[in-house]
Amino acid sequence: MVPLPLTDHIRRRSFWFITLALIIANVWVFFFELAQGRGINRLVSFYGIVPARYLTRYGFANLTVAGFLVPVFVSMFLHGGWLHLLGNMLFLFVFGRSVEDRYGHFKFLFLYFLSGFAGAILHIILNAGSRLPSIGASGAIAGVLGAYFVSFPRARITTLIFLIFFFWTIELPAILVLGYWFLIQFVAGYQMLAIQSATGGGVAWWAHVGGFMTGLMLAVAFRPVQRGRVVEVQ
């Protein structure tokens, strides 16, 4: 059974400028990727996060500050295909709007990038020696999910449920939707630790875990913007 969130029911008091700008930026960069033709592999290899460039099995790699940071942040705007992009943008749209409204545009942007950075660091540490590039906004978006998890645990999320050839929508509490999502990431990441290799592929599960936990902690530390009471739309 695969749950897919479609929207929440929070009445927001401000427009989600940063969320929209991030979605536009990710889509624009994806079309830029497609325009590279055969050069897309070189682009991903250069700007993707390759753990072996940062941390080998024998210690830290010799990198400049730019050589360390540029791929970490550029990779947040690269995606491996339409499903990768659309899935990430859907989650950002569903959960980002209310988190941005609660904490304000600047704090939201800070949370987004710091979560992506923390997720990338955890991915590098737990995949030391891997030569496979990792790309995508998932770590940063996971931070948004973590912030939503503690900010709106009882919010109702309209969710599309897939079961083989059947699907239907149902409203579920955010704490259940996001708790289930996080559990999948953690269990999958734990399982991958036992079977990973230097050239093994797959999803950067630990980037998701690291991003989620960072967003959760930042949301606890942040003070919400005072705009009056945020209510759920029935």
Task: Note down, in words, how this protein is organized.
It is built from nine helices and seven strands, in the order ββαααββααααββααβ. It has a single domain (about 1-165, about 170-230), classed as Up-down Bundle (Rhomboid-like fold), CATH 1.20.1540.10. It is α+β, with helices and mostly antiparallel strands and about 230 residues long. The two termini are about 25 Å apart. The protein is globular. α5 packs across α6 (about 105-125), α6 runs antiparallel to α9 and α7 (about 140-150) packs across α9. The longest helix has 22 residues, at about 80-105. The strands form three sheets. It has a three-stranded antiparallel sheet with strand order 1-5-6. The model has no long low-confidence stretch (mean pLDDT about 90).
**In the CATH hierarchy, what is the class?**
Mainly Alpha
Number of helices: 9
Q: Helix proportion of residues, in percent?
A: 55-70%
Structural class: alpha+beta
What is the fourth-level CATH superfamily? Rhomboid-like
**How much is the radius of gyration in Å?**
18 Å
**Count of discrete structural domains:** 1
| CATH topology group | Rhomboid-like fold
Instruction: Flag low-confidence runs.
Output: none
Which band does the percent of strand residues land in? 5-15%
CATH architecture, please?
Up-down Bundle
In N-to-C order, the SSE pattern is EEHHHEEHHHHEEHHE
Strand segment count: 7
Distance between the termini: 26 Å
